[in-house]
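Hi support team,

I've been running sequence recovery on a batch of backbones for a student project. Most finish fine, but this one hangs at about 90% for roughly twenty minutes before it completes. I'm not sure whether the input is malformed or the queue is just slow. I've pasted the structure tokens below so you can try to reproduce it. Let me know if you need the job ID as well.

Thanks,
M.K.
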């Protein structure tokens, strides 16, 4: 694929993801969705949906997301 040659677009160039309100995220989680919280660690630790996975967007997001979410996906 061209992604292998050019590389993926930087996150800053992508459309922002829609934020989901906690009750909706919890509903989706109960239906089998994986809740991935991309906030920094401090806000995440201040309060989050139980069993949500925290992977901040800085640093090695793709590697961590692939390792953690990939191992929990059905």
């Amino acid at each position: 694929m061209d992604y292998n040659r050019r590389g993926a677009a930087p996150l800053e160039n992508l459309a922002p993801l829609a934020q989901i309100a906690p009750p909706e995220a919890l509903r989706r989680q109960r239906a089998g969705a994986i809740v991935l919280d991309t906030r920094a660690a401090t806000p995440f630790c201040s309060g989050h949906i139980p069993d949500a996975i925290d992977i901040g967007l800085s640093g090695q997001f793709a590697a961590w997301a692939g390792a953690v979410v990939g191992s929990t996906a059905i």
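--
Follow-up from support: It reproduced on our side and the slowdown came from queue contention, not your input. The longest helix spans residues 61-72. No action needed from you.
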